[in-house]
Structure formats: C-alpha cells, structure tokens
Structure of tRNA (guanine-N(1)-)-methyltransferase:
Amino acid sequence: MTFHATVLTLYPEMFPGSLDLSLAGRAREAGTWSLETVQIRDFATSKHRNVDDTPAGGGAGMVMRADVLARAIDHAAPADDPRPRLLMSPRGKPLDQQRVRELAAGPGAVILCGRFEGVDQRVIEARGLEEVSVGDYVLSGGEPAALVLLDAVIRLLPGVMGNDASGEEESFEGGLLEHPQYTRPQLFEERPIPEVLLSGNHAKIAAWRRAEAERLTRERRPDLWAALNKDRQRVP
C-alpha cells in the first residue's frame, strides 16, 4: 500500500524539498509513498485571489479564510477519503513518535499548511482538522512543519530503512532517549570507545545501552522520565 500525502499550501514549490533526497527520495521513486501539492490560492474566487482577511474583533495580521480553505480541502479530500486531515499549528498537540507510527500505519495524510496569524476556526471544526505542532516555537508557515512530519513518517514506512531494527532503538521509542553511539577510530583525541562495547558480551552491551538511555532521559528530558515512571507504576 502506498502512503499518499496531499499538502495544501500557498507555496507548493517548497515540496518535496528535502523529501526528494536520501531514503525518502528513493522511497518515493519506488512508489512507497506519493506526494501531491494543492495550491490554496487556486480556490479563491475574488479578483485578486485573496486567501486571507482581517481578523474579526480587530488585531494585527491576517487570517486565512474558511470558505477558500474549505473548497481546497474538499477538492483534495472528499468526504469518503479515509486519510486524517492535519493542520500544522503551534497550538496543536505536540507530535510524538506514537502519533508518527500511527500515521505511518495508515493510508496517508492530508496536510494543511497555515500562514499569517492562523486559520478561521470554523473551517477547523467543519472539516475536522487535527491540529499538530512540531514544537513550542512559531514558524513563518506550516510548510517546514509539514516537511518535518512527513520525514518522520516516511522513514517508518515498510522497506524505507534497510534495517527495521534501526527504528526500534532510537530516541522516543520505548519512552527513552537513545543511548550514545560510537564507531571507529577506537581512540579519538584520547577518548576511547567504552570497553563494554568492545567486549562482545551482548547482554552487557544491552544493559549498558539501557542504563545510558535512562541516564540521558533523566538528565535531559525529565518530562519523559516522569511519564515513563508513571506508566511503570500503573503496571500491576
């Protein structure tokens, strides 16, 4: 099954961008996933093809119009389209690895890239848009966020990564950050590879990696560590 992504944007030339390179690019050539871009401005009906207007109640900036976006969404994803409809938004639910895996297991996604001060709330509700955030910061538009989301999803599609185990031992899998990695040379600027990794003892190596992953998570992401321990306490 091909993962089909449709991106609604005012800047279709930003796609596929980095997704046309490396693993994602080869996977698109192989038909593992496909990409369609929809120019939102094509669905504007005014003389100047306006897609935005001043915010109701006053305030700075402009807001993307509900009627224009609704026509674009209906064109890209009819009512019977099973794909989730996502709106890249800084106020959305933070994207995490679990949601990425859910999306990768599905038929694709319809992704709306917001611009200006945001999107009219009525189209979010009327078209069932799921607001998704890639971090607690503001971008100039949803396009970079959409590229991040798609990159995270595509690499988990079957056959994209040469070794499926690669995706199981990374940061956020199992609720932990990834353990440190080492390779040749064995000695770099008087810094050696930890001896346990050269021991050939797979049980000791696994235990070391787990301990290091837990240490890094405690130090760098106490929120993840707290959530992991909370889940452990729930297990009978």
